[in-house]
Design a protein that fits this description.
The protein is of the alpha/beta class. It is built from four helices and five strands. It has one domain: 3-Layer(aba) Sandwich (Rossmann fold), CATH 3.40.50.1450. It starts with a strand and ends with a helix.
Length: about 150
């Protein structure tokens, strides 16, 4: 069984750190032995340096028109990058150089991971994050399910 690489994209500010909180929570889980967890602070194109290991899971805070805490999930591939770009790039990233541009560059450089997935946690439309602990727990459980699914594919 190969190790899964988990990239938690975020920053130390407010709700943008949701992926870091989730990744840190996973370090206390039994799956830690099978998962290489890395926290990245607004990596931009440096994200490409992390694409050497598969399977790959990227988690990040996102802005969508949905409800706070909505989980956005999709396989990372060229079609989904185009969908992201055609909507609003900001819709799927809270960083200035978003996921879409970094992944598009990975295609141009032929570094696109073949077995990669994205999980986002919508931080838009927040009223009071302290009262939404259940949503954070749901996101953590969803991440765990995806990790276990990826590890069982091997």
């Amino acid at each position: 069984m190969s190790k899964l690489k988990l990239l938690a994209i975020g920053s130390p500010f407010q709700l943008d750190r949701v992926s870091w909180i989730m990744a840190n929570a996973l370090t206390h889980n039994k799956i830690k032995a099978n998962v290489d967890i890395k926290l990245l602070d607004r990596p931009g194109i440096n994200l490409l340096k992390e694409f050497s290991q598969e399977p790959l899971l990227i988690i990040d805070a996102v802005y969508t028109n949905g409800e706070f805490g909505q989980i956005v999930e999709f396989p990372i591939n060229e079609n989904n990058i185009l969908k992201i770009k055609q909507s609003q790039v900001k819709a799927y990233s809270s960083h200035s150089l978003g996921l879409a541009q970094s992944l598009e560059l990975s295609i141009a450089l032929d570094q696109m991971p073949k077995n990669a997935r994205f999980l986002g946690f919508n931080i838009n439309n927040v009223k009071d994050a302290r009262n939404n602990l259940k949503l954070f727990r749901n996101f953590k459980e969803h991440i765990l399910k995806v990790i276990l699914s990826k590890l069982n594919e091997e």
